[in-house]
Amino acid sequence: MTDPRSTLAILDPATGAEEVVLQTDRLIEAPNWTPDGAALIVNGDGLIWRVPLAEPRLVPVDTAFADRCNNDHGLSPDGRTLVISHHTGGKSCIYTLPVEGGTPVRVTANMPSWWHGWSPDGARLAYTAVRDEEFGIWTCPVSGGDETRVISGPHHYDGPDYTPDGDWIWFNSTRGGTMDLWRVRPDGSDAEQMTHDGSDNWFPHPSPAGGEILYLAYEGGTEGHPRDREVELRMLDPRTGGTRTILSFFGGQGSINVPCWHPDGRRFAFVRYGRP
User: Which residue ranges does UniProt annotate as crossing the membrane (predicted)?
Assistant: First the structure.
């Protein structure tokens, strides 16, 4: 018997206990928690799905014309608004809509733009973008309007996510030579490399409880962030620089691309994939 294509699970990093929520032969990705902790949001087949934890199943969210949604989506701090990244004209563009579904409203005037973080005060979105042929991290008001460059350059930048106090934006970049975790102030100051371990490190997610940073580690030398690889989920303590591996599994692209912590910061959701 072959493994299910996708297994949606919850992990307690303190104990290593894993709870399987849902298994499906559909390719699903990038779980987010609703602020009430009652459901997870994932994408699959270009659509957005809600998974109620009381009765786990894939319930489609009405996104109207947006039927090419990628794995860069999430929820506002108050849980009322869903942000999605939908491919239009061959490029990713950011939209918002009510969490219960509805017609998406365009946020980013420029493309491509891939959403990754929401400021704790609910006012701004952080995203990866390509502008003037360079990757970078940008922010803009939730309602759209002028975007602000945080950091960019002739390297790859991805995965921006705010700390719960809003003081830092964490991201991953090759600006130091290899793919490592970095953090920067929202105004673009104090950029600091935070990992130096020889792995290719992606998608840092600060715990809502403060303290450690969850991230995905690939074997050093991996090109991009592919799916279906042997990878590790690790935790980084930014105060000491210490890291620890909490799970080795078959995953990668789609496992934790976007904020995936439970609101209490004690557990997180992720997706593992079936081995061929």
Answer: none
Burial class from Cβ neighbours inside 10 Å (0-12, 13-18, 19+) for residue 133 reads exposed
Q: Which residue bears the tokens 């960019």?
A: 152
Give the angle subtended at the CA of 146 by the CAs of 125 and 168, to the nearest 5°: 35
Cα separation values, 52 from 36, 37, 57, 64, 76, Å? 11, 9, 7, 21, 18
Q: Which of 146, 147, 149, 153 is nearest to 137 (CA)?
A: 149
pLDDT in tens, 181-223: 999 999 999 999 999 999 999 999 999 998 899 999 999 999 9
Identity of residue 190: D
Q: What is the dihedral of CA 12, 261, 164, 142, to 10 degrees?
A: 180
Q: Which tens digits make up the pLDDT trace of 98-153?
A: 999 999 999 999 999 999 999 999 999 999 999 999 999 999 999 999 999 999 99
